[in-house]
Amino acid sequence: MKAAVLVFPGSNREGDVAQAIELVTGRRPQMVWHGDGNFEKVDLIVVPGGFAYGDYLRCGAMAAQSPVMAEVKKRAALGVPVLGICNGFQIVTEAGLLPGTLMRNSHLKFVCADVHLRVETSQSLFTNRYQAGQIIKVPVAHAEGNYFADADTMKRLEDRGQIAFRYCGPDGSIVDGRGNPNGSSSNIAGVFNDTKTVLGLMPHPENAVEPMFGGTDGKALFEGMVEALS
Amino acid sequence: MTVAKEKNPPVKLPNEPTITPQIVAEHGLAPDEYERLLKIMGRDPTMVELGIFSAMWSEHCSYKSSKVWLKKLPTKAPWVIQGPGENAGVIDIGDGQAAIFKMESHNHPSYIEPYQGAATGVGGILRDVFTMGARPVANLNALRFGDPKHAKTRHLVSGVVAGIAGYGNCMGIPTVGGETNFHAAYNGNILVNAMTVGVARTDKIFYAAAAGIGNPMVYVGSKTGRDGIHGATMSSTEFNEDSESKRPTVQVGDPFVEKLLLEACLELMATDAIIAIQDMGAAGLTSSSFEMAAKGGLGLVMELDKVPMRETGMNPYELMLSESQERMLIVLKPGREDQARAIFEKWELDFAVIGHLTDTERMVLTWHGDVVGNIPIPPLVTEAPMYERPWTLTPLPPELDASKVPAPTDWKASLLTLMSCPDLASKAWIWHQYDHLIMGNTAIRPQGGDAALVRVPGAPKPASHKGLAMTSDCTPRYVQAHPETGGRQAVAEAWRNITAVGARPLAVTDNMNFGNPQKPEIMGQFAGAIMGMAEACTALDFPVVSGNVSLYNETEGRPILPTPTIGAVGVIDDIATSAGSRLVQSGLALVLIGDTRGWLGQSIYLREMHGREEGAPPPVDLAVERRNGDFVRGEIVGRRVHACHDLSDGGLLVALAEMCLSGDTGACIKLPASDVAPHAYLYGEDQARYLIATDDGPALVAAARHAGVPAVLLGYSGGPDITVDGLLTLPLQELRDAHENWLPGYMNSTA
Predict the structure, then answer these.
(1) What is the domain range of residue A25?
(2) Could you give the CA distance from residue B619 to residue B489 in angstroms, rounded to a whole number?
(3) What distance lies between CA B636 and its chain's CA centroid?
(4) Active site residue A206
(5) What pTM was estimated for this model as a whole?
(6) Do A141 and B438 touch (CB under 8 A)?
(7) What is the DSSP secondary-structure string of B314-338?
(8) How far out from the chain centre does Cα A135 lie?
(9) pLDDT exceeding 70 applies to what percent of chain B?
């Protein structure tokens, strides 16, 4: 699997995701600068976490207009898989690659903590190494992760199986508010586009790939992509 | 003094006022200090020159009250690469790698404007570390707030924590540890001490000393605005009711720009274009340019009109004294300007050649071609005021007999009270706002062990996971009661915390927070604390490699508790051999290491249960500290320890409760037969003690005895409760509710 990781001024988890990809593939991904609208052909584009352009204006709003994102939109339309994590989720959402939006956390504070997620489907190139219904533990670290979409969009996401991950209790229970770190609608932690070739999620699977450094529950996401894309 | 004769006396700018005694006083210079200035200058200064002297001779920049004492601290060891005097201390951590670290206060600004004050405190300490060539790998902070009931406390906690989070999270540096305490003595002067630890290659460390006559001086980073003018002077006086009006002296930070500056500087550092580099911190362009020239024994010409400006109509005085953030000064090798400019332009940062080095040992400032300042550099440094202020040591209070302290009538209630008191309650509300996981190297997180443990990036493969352990410690009530003991204890506790995760303690950074040094009893606290710290650092081979002094932490004559915060760093060869403090397994033996006399003087128990802050603090026997610690560390790296926690505030029972809660496993212990009263045994704060969870209790006790270390098997882990045989059984859930709900409840209440 050949991967590209975008780097914006203010990105700061690009190294973490590059390290996770290298751990799984044995190969360092290509790092692509935000002004580069013509990077080489890859199997996967990762939009990493951070504070692209300082999160000025609105998280992801400026990055969504960058030259590199114009190219990402073109390639996504051709079916090239895109993974947006945290700020990357905000950016791909602002770019229109995913429905909905990410608002300020309901408690108005930044939150960094391990959360439990229920994997909603194994039927995607990102989640094929998980079982549907599996509970995994990965961290979140954000101030704007409160997913929101209008009622019609929410229904469509549900009907088409576009919800990838939901926040849940340690036992997998989805009770309103419990285990939800940011107040997101329907406990949504990650969503797909309608072809399931774009995934955006707030949690950081890249920070859960080694036993002594946060556990390994995030590793299967990267392994699954390698399997699907190699 | 021999300095080049002044060839170009400065011109007066339009509207420049005549210097009056009142203007001198407003610049914080005493009359005799101004006389000294006149002798050096040989004429009346211009306003910009006066401003420069004022900043350079402020307590904050000159250490004029503390220097004679700081010299008494041990600063050398074979692993010390750079001690105090540079932007940060540097130690060798093996494999051609160095750890670079420092702790610095941002107390006064944080009280006036908590969000920006704390945020720029983080920004400043990060720059101190990356200006030396290190990529920062972790942040810590030590916070002291006033009484929770004080009207401003909630607002200050909220703002400071959000400010630290806002800056550190955006920079992408994990904030992995620290401490937060509350005491009425901080009502008018909170403490915000921020520490950064970075990692560099030992052959790629950058210093401030300028070299090479004619070489260009380059300004990079943000533009200069009018923020923070006179910040250094403001931090060098006591507060009064007018301090609120000093809000404009607080700098405003932009972590996004600092992140760009970090990346751009590291990219430039990877080339060989840099001769010297210095960040612009307190007193901005003034102190950075002076330090670079003075350390290099050179002079310089700076064309101030070339400085990138954020606002129109700025004048030389404002440019020299602005404390605008996210700026650096660099001396480049000749002809490297274009290479450097390309890097900074890529990162969309300002880049301007603003001057060059000369052989005159004078700082010449020009403004559109006219000389507006011309100051001889060496005497400004060598003739700086230095005071040996009168000092009176605090006498050792009498020892408090434990029999004079009542035992609890309700044991359960006593543990609940202690675990939910502001100093001991869970600080999760705070550290969950800090990204403590970014970079993917955090092995021991907040509340996971006595020290944070972070993997060292870039260690050679296939070597195991080398780790840096780091902690911040001070027990101000001990220092208040007896500064020498308190100073010794702060160092010993930091050493113990590094030890308790299995790492080798290597060096410390000290952040000395005290009141007005012009009062003999305050200067005596400072002197006493230094004596105790020096003794402990020497005995534990734990040199001081960097530090910072914050004086005048007083409001309307009321000083803070003396708070010499100790930040410490240690190394462990393989993180797989470390230990945290979480009790996660049932059936483990719980062994108490160290001698228990039941010392209740100055204990949390005494304060929280009986409202008394009295007696002598627990004595610190450094030989015993070392013996016990070396034994514990050997057991941990020998992989015979599941969990280890040092005993500090609240003593044995609080330590056990913390281990149980963080690992979600109960425990049952029985006190050994002894002549120490149960409440003194459980809540006494005797030093040099650890609580260890291990598979084989009797073997650990035997090994300890063999090493001459007191050890006793107290009980076993397991079950849903914490039990002390015959005294209390408390469900963990009840304890957890009390421990975890205090701070969120306090912050969310409106009263």
Answers:
(1) 3-229
(2) 8
(3) 28
(4) yes
(5) 0.96
(6) yes
(7) --HHHHHH---SSEEEEEEPTT-HH
(8) 17
(9) 96
Task: Give the Å distances, CA to CA, from B364 to A24, A54, B357, B378, B581.
Answer: 58, 37, 10, 13, 57
What is the identity of the amino acid at A81?
Answer: P
ipTM of the shown complex: 0.97
From B465, which residue of chain A is nearest by alpha-carbon distance?
A212
Q: Which residues of A touch B574 (CB under 8 A)?
A: none
CA-based torsion, B663, B668, B674, B678: positive or negative: positive
Alpha-carbon span B368 to B700, nearest angstrom: 75
Candidates B456, B451, B461; CA nearest to B439 is B456
A86 is an active site residue: yes
Integer Cα distance of A176 and B1 in angstroms: 76
Question: Of B80, B23, B30, B96, which is closest to residue B57 (Cα–Cα)?
Answer: B30
Cβ-Cβ contacts under 8 Å for A113 (sequence gap 6 or more): A139, A140, A181, B432
Q: Which two tokens stand for residue B116?
A: 């920006």
A 10 A CB-CB count for B203 gives: 8
Structure-block tokens of residue B303:
């064309």
Q: What is the Cα–Cα distance from B441 to A20, expressed in whole angstroms? A: 12
Instruction: Identify all chain A residues contacting B427, using CB atoms and an 8 Å cutoff.
Output: none
Mean pLDDT across the stretch B124-140?
97
A206·B440 Cβ contact <8 A = yes
From the list B282, B270, B404, the residue with the least C-alpha distance to B343 is B270
CA–CA distance, A175 with B449 (Å, rounded to integer): 32
In chain A, the number of structural domains is: 1
- Hey, are the CB atoms on A111 and B433 less than 8 Å from each other? yes
Residue A141 is nearest to which of B255, B437, B465, comparing CB atoms?
B437
A-chain residues near B343 (CB < 8 A) = none
Q: Strand B135-145 relative to strand B191-201: parallel, antiparallel, unpaired?
A: antiparallel
Query: Of residues A14, A94, A144, A206, which has the active-site annotation?
Result: A206
Token match 């590199």: residue? A68
CB contact under 8 A, A207 and B440: yes
d(CA A7, CA A55): 14
The answer to whether the Cβ–Cβ distance between A141 and B169 falls below 8 Å is: yes
Please write the tens of the pLDDT for every residue from B374-424.
999 999 988 999 999 999 999 999 999 988 999 999 999 999 999 999 999
The 3 state secondary structure assigned to B474-503 is CCHHHHHHCHHHHHHHHHHHHHHHHHCCCC
Do B256 and A13 count as a contact with CB atoms less than 8 A apart?
A: no
Q: Model confidence at B1, in pLDDT bands (50, 70, 90)?
A: very low
CATH of the domain at A13: 3.40.50.880
Which residue from B94, B120, B96 is spatially nearest to B107, judged by alpha carbons?
B120
pLDDT tens-digit map of B411-461: 999 999 999 999 999 999 999 999 999 999 999 999 999 999 999 998 776
Positive or negative, the Cα torsion across A24, A28, A29, A33? positive
CA distance A13 to chain B (A): 7
Number of Cβ pairs < 8 A linking chain A and chain B:
83
Q: Which of B109, B387, B403 is nearest to B227 (CA)?
A: B109
Note the pLDDT tens digit of each residue in B657-700. 999 999 999 999 999 999 999 999 999 999 999 999 999 999 99
Asked if B374 contacts B362 with a C-beta cutoff of 8 angstroms, the reply is: yes
List pLDDT tens digits, range B628-640.
999 999 999 999 9
- Name the residue of chain B whose CA is nearest to A215's CA: B443
Closest CA to B563 of B181, B150, B159, B15: B181
Q: Is B708 exposed, middle or buried (CB count within 10 Å of its CB: 0-12, 13-18, 19+)? A: exposed
3-state secondary structure of B268: helix
Asked if the Cβ–Cβ distance from A111 to B172 is below 8 Å, we say: no
Active site residue B60: yes
Catalytic residue (one of A34, A59, A86, A142): A86
